[in-house]
Automatic annotation (TrEMBL):
<dbReference type="InterPro" id="IPR050807">
    <property type="entry name" value="TransReg_Diox_bact_type"/>
</dbReference>
<dbReference type="Pfam" id="PF01381">
    <property type="entry name" value="HTH_3"/>
</dbReference>
<dbReference type="GO" id="GO:0005829">
    <property type="term" value="C:cytosol"/>
</dbReference>
<dbReference type="GO" id="GO:0003677">
    <property type="term" value="F:DNA binding"/>
</dbReference>
<keyword id="KW-0238">DNA-binding</keyword>
<dbReference type="InterPro" id="IPR010982">
    <property type="entry name" value="Lambda_DNA-bd_dom_sf"/>
</dbReference>
<dbReference type="GO" id="GO:0003700">
    <property type="term" value="F:DNA-binding transcription factor activity"/>
</dbReference>
<dbReference type="InterPro" id="IPR001387">
    <property type="entry name" value="Cro/C1-type_HTH"/>
</dbReference>
<feature type="domain" description="HTH cro/C1-type">
    <location>
        <begin position="4"/>
        <end position="59"/>
    </location>
</feature>
<protein>
    <submittedName>
        <fullName>Anaerobic benzoate catabolism transcriptional regulator</fullName>
    </submittedName>
</protein>
Length: 76
C-alpha cells in the first residue's frame, strides 16, 4: 500500500487530512500505508482513492489478469 503514501506525500497532505476527508481513523490509514491492513473494503478503497484524486485501480493493486498459477489451472 505504499502507493497511498507516495500519492499523499506528492499532494503534500497528511494522514490526518486523508482521515478527515474519508471519515476513517488516522491509524487505519496509517496501517494501510504500512501494509498492516491488507484487505480494505471496496468502500474504503473508493474513499481513499477519491481523496487522492486517483482511480481505485491506480491506488490499489487490483489483479486484472489471473496469475500464472491460475492460468495454468484454466488450461488444464
Amino acid at each position: 500500500m505504499n502507493k497511498i503514501k507516495a500519492l499523499r506525500e506528492k499532494l503534500r497532505i497528511s494522514i490526518y487530512d486523508i482521515a478527515k476527508v474519508t471519515g476513517l481513523a488516522p491509524s487505519y490509514v496509517s496501517n494501510l500505508e504500512h501494509g498492516r491492513r491488507t484487505n480494505p473494503s471496496l468502500e474504503v478503497m473508493q474513499k481513499i482513492s477519491s481523496a487522492l484524486g486517483e482511480k481505485v485501480e491506480e491506488v490499489f493493486k487490483l489483479n486484472q489478469e489471473p496469475d500464472k498459477k491460475a492460468r495454468m489451472n484454466i488450461l488444464k
